[in-house]
Structures are given as C-alpha cells and as structure tokens.
Amino acid sequence: MFTRIARRAFSTSKVNPYKVTILGAGGGIGQPLSLLLKLNHKVTDLRLYDLKGAPGVAADLSHIPTNSKVSGFTPDNEGLSKALKDADVVLIPAGVPRKPGMTRDDLFSINASIVRDLAKAAGDAAPNANILVISNPVNSTVPIVAETLKKKGVYNPHKLFGVTTLDSIRAARFISEVEGTDPTTEHVNVVGGHSGITIVPLISQTKYKTMDKTTREALIHRIQFGGDEVVKAKDGAGSATLSMAQAGATFANAVLSGLGGERDVIASSYVDSPLYKSEGVEFFASPVTLGPDGISKVHPVGDISSEEEQLLEKAKETLKKNITKGFAFIDKE
Ligand SMILES: NC(=O)C1=CN([C@@H]2O[C@H](COP(=O)(O)OP(=O)(O)OC[C@H]3O[C@@H](n4cnc5c(N)ncnc54)[C@H](O)[C@@H]3O)[C@@H](O)[C@H]2O)C=CC1
Ligand SMILES: O=C([O-])CC(=O)C(=O)O
C-alpha cells in the first residue's frame, strides 16, 4: 500500500474538490510542482504565490485542460492572504537554495524568517490547512512553523509536515542501481530528518539485508548526501528542483488521498512525533498514516540493526540541536 500511494505523483480519479496553495510557486521547485499539481485531478483550485512571477506561471498552466482553476498572486492587493484563504493544503518551497560548499543549516539565516512570515499568514487565512514545508533547513523550518502557529493558537500537530519524500525516492533509485533492479519496485524506509547524518535509511528492512558492509555504507552515504550531488552538478545554480517537485507532488497527493478518505495511505514525513519526545526530539521523520484530519498515526521505525541503532542515535543528537534552533528563533521574538 505504501508503495502504491507513495509513487503516484498525480491521480486521475475524481473525488472531493481541494484548494491547494503553493508559496514560492515561481521558483525552481515551485514551477514544476505547480505543473504536477495542475495535473492532479484532486486539485480543483490551485493558487500560486510568489514575490513575483506567479501570475505568469498561473496563466501558462491555466491553458492545460484539467479540471482546476489556477490563479496567480503577488504581495500586491493582499495577494498572500487571498492565495491562502481557506486552503486545504499549503506547500511551502519559498526560500533560497544551497550553493556548493554550503550546508542546509547555512540557509537558516535567510529562510527562517521567510518561512515564519508565510506560516503567520497561513495561520490567519487558512488555520485548518495541512502545511507541507519544503524550504530548508527542514529540520528547523518545521519547528518554526509549529511555534508560529502555536503563538496564534491554531497549531494542529496532525497537519504539519516536513517533506522528506525526496530521501525516500532517492533511496529507491540508488538501491536499484546497486542491485540492478527496477527502481519502481523498490522501497526503503528512511527515518530521522532531512540533512546529512539525520537521514537514516533502514537497509536492514529491505530484502537486501545481506548486502556487504562496504556497499551498504556507500549506499547509506549516497542517500544521506544525495542533495550534494545535485548542488555540485548545478555548480552555483541551486539544488534539486525537478526531483523535488516530483517528490512534493507525490507527497501532496498522499495527503489529498488521506483527506479524501482513502484508507491505508502511508507515507514518510518529518512530523511532531511521539517516538523520541521523551529524549527531547520533538520532530522526527517516520511513516505516518494520512486521513481526513491529517496524520492519524505515527508509525515507529520498526526493527533495525545495531549499525542502524548507532546511526539513529547520531541523528537524534543533531536533530535536537536543529529543533532547538528553530524554537529559539521564534521564542526570542
Ligand atoms: N525538502 C526538500 O527535500 C528540499 C528542499 N529544498 C529547498 O526548497 C527551497 C526552494 O528551492 P528552489 O525552488 O530551488 O529555490 P528558488 O530560488 O529557485 O525558488 C524559491 C522561490 O521562493 C520565492 N520566495 C522567496 N521569498 C519568498 C516569500 N517571502 N514569499 C514567497 N515566495 C518567496 C522566490 O521568489 C523564488 O521564486 C530551498 O530552501 C531549498 O533548499 C530543495 C530541494 C529539496
Ligand atoms: O540539498 C539541498 O540543499 C536540497 C535538498 O534538500 C535536497 O536535494 O535533498
């Protein structure tokens, strides 16, 4: 079931009408993500917002004969609140991407305030929305959104998601390259967070648990640092956009499937999680069941090897720092 839902970026079934807003829709991720959501028949009202450029993207997409209306907004004439008004799903890819030599955490100084301000607007105009955060550093931007919404009294932990789907799709692709298999049939459970060592792929849960140590360690490293491959190849022109758009559209479709009452919709995401809260890790990525009210269940990581236990411990240490940094940013306001 996980595989069926998680791999589908768009659906052709007609179900409930949904309003979906993309904040940062004119950017490298925003444009292809907007296209993929224009192709999703679950979306009937697609709102695109950016500092500039979104009306052009909307006009372009509006010629595609799918059943959604598309509108573009800029900050003029209260465009942000109009774009957000009563949205069911809000995706946030607004913010700056990495350049070679930077970590995702280096983006905090610029992206933290962008995400905070967009979260404030979402809290006012779409307090019931499911919010899907793409902007990096996800490990910190998700806690920033949570704290911002808490301050407004509209925080619902079941409706806030850090989008980590790109880690899952990379893991499927990379393991298929190692094993010489069809990537569309592969699935790797990836837990933790979304940066470097906080990304923990659980190879022991795949059918390749006997993979030799050197191959396995190289594979884990590639999944953890897959983003760097793209940053390096783009050579200053940004980070993953097209694979991220595919990942974002796939995850958004899973959320919409859950809202529409489909059963057993399970996908991984970085969420307000009970799993390691007692250890001070308030947010953690693991599979979640998605339903009409957002997350209905957070699944544990399951059985893991002693090697993965060690990776998990290291991930939790870094996550704690990333989360605290996000909380502190809002607390000092
Ligand atoms: N979660 C994940 O797996 C991934 C996350 N990312 C992150 O996504 C973010 C966006 O990346 P790209 O699309 O490549 O960057 P980009 O620079 O191409 O596009 C970002 C867009 O955000 C807009 N923007 C900036 N401030 C805004 C604001 N206050 N309101 C509305 N729009 C605003 C910009 O005008 C621009 O159009 C980056 O932070 C990047 O690190 C990228 C890849 C994967
Ligand atoms: O690497 C980056 O900066 C963008 C990102 O999050 C990814 O590609 O996983």
UniProtKB/TrEMBL annotation:
Q: Which residues form the Lactate/malate dehydrogenase C-terminal domain?
A: 164-329
Superkingdom, taxonomy of origin: Eukaryota
Q: Where is the active site?
A: 194
GO terms, biological process: malate metabolic process; tricarboxylic acid cycle
- Ranges of residues in domain Lactate/malate dehydrogenase N-terminal: 19-162
Q: Which Pfam families match?
A: Ldh_1_C (PF02866), Ldh_1_N (PF00056)
Entry's family note: Belongs to the LDH/MDH superfamily. MDH type 1 family.
> NCBIfam families under this entry?
MDH_euk_gproteo
* Protein's UniProt name: Malate dehydrogenase
Origin organism lineage = Eukaryota, Fungi, Dikarya, Ascomycota, Saccharomycotina
